[in-house]
Amino acid sequence: MLSTALSKTPQHVVGRGLTLSIVAAFLTPQIMPASAGADEASSRVRSTNPVILDLLKEARDRSATFRTLVEAIDHSNGIVYVEFGYCAFGHLDGCLLPIIASTHGDRYVRVIVSPEKSRLNHDQLLALIGHELRHALEVLEHPEVVDDPTMENMYRSIGTPIAGQRGFETSAARSSGTAVLTELLRNTRAPQYLEAAARPFAD
Description:
Largest sheet: 6 strands, mixed
Radius of gyration: 16 Å
Oligomer: single chain
Number of domains: 1
Number of strands: 8
Distance between the termini: 27 Å
Strand content: 15-25%
Helix content: 25-40%
C-alpha cells in the first residue's frame, strides 16, 4: 500500500491488511522494541527480534514462494529488516516504510508487521511477511527508487490505485501472499516450530 503518514514530513507507506489488500490511511508507524536479537548475517532479510528470526526461518523451510522471495532479496543490493510494530494506528496488519537508506551501495528498507495474535494466526503472519517482502523486492528491483517521491512514482506505474484513497496495491504482492499461505497450509509445522509458535509475537 502507498499511504500518507501523519508527521512533520509527509511519508508514504506500502503495506496491507489481512485481506492482502492495500488501504490508504493517515499513519504514524510505531515499532515495537525487541528484548534481544541479532541480525542473521547470512541473509539480507533480517530482524533485531529473535521471534521474527525464527518466523523467517520457518517460512523459508515451509514455503517455496517465501524462500524464492528471500533468495531474490539476497541477490539484490537491498537489506530488508522485518520488525514488529503498528501501521496506520493499528488499522493495517503490515506495511513497508518508505525510508530508504543507502550505505556502500546497499539500500535499506524496513517492513513492519502487527504483533497482535488476535488479528493474525501463525500462518497468516508468515503470509503477511511474504506479502510485504514482495513489496520490498518491488522497490529493490527499481534502482531509481531512493526516496519517498520516487517510491510513489514507481507505484503509480506498477500499482493499482485504491478507489477514493491515496494508495496502491500490486497483483504481484497479492499473489505472493496467497501463494505463501497456500504452501503453509499444505506443509504443517514441524515439531521444532510448535514451541516457537506458542511464544508471544513480541517477546
